[in-house]
Specification:
Strand content: over 45%
Distance between the termini: 24 Å
Number of strands: 6
Helix content: 25-40%
Order of helices and strands: EEEHHEEE
Radius of gyration: 13 Å
Structural class: alpha+beta
Strand order of the largest sheet: 1-2-3-6-5-4
Largest sheet: 6 strands, antiparallel
Number of helices: 2
């Protein structure tokens, strides 16, 4: 990933099944969106876990929300340390996780 990101919403990474978009406003990150063309893959798990750990928001609620979204092909939301995480699973080949500062 690049060391800095310009204002607005930009695709920072597009590699294999993973795409990462970042929204920056006034020099602050407001939203991170991780899209995977394949749900429950090591690539998605490693990418998500990296952000979860880097943001220091790891907790069991995030894991359960992810599992529920994938299992039921649904949208789930939870909050950890003022970061709202929303999972949207449309199919086994369409999963999005969005991190937003509350």
């Amino acid at each position: 990933m690049p060391e800095t990101a310009p204002e607005g919403t930009k695709v920072l990474v597009e590699s294999g099944p993973i795409k990462i978009k970042l929204t920056v406003s006034n020099g602050e990150v407001e939203k991170i969106v991780i899209y995977s063309a394949k749900a429950q893959t090591p690539e998605f798990d490693e990418t998500f876990e990296g952000f979860e750990g880097g943001l220091n928001i790891s907790n069991i609620k995030l894991f359960y929300a992810y599992q529920e979204s994938v299992k039921n092909a649904s949208t789930t939301t939870t909050v950890s340390k003022n970061v709202k995480v929303t999972y949207v699973t449309k199919s086994a080949d369409d999963l999005t996780a969005t991190f937003e500062v509350k």
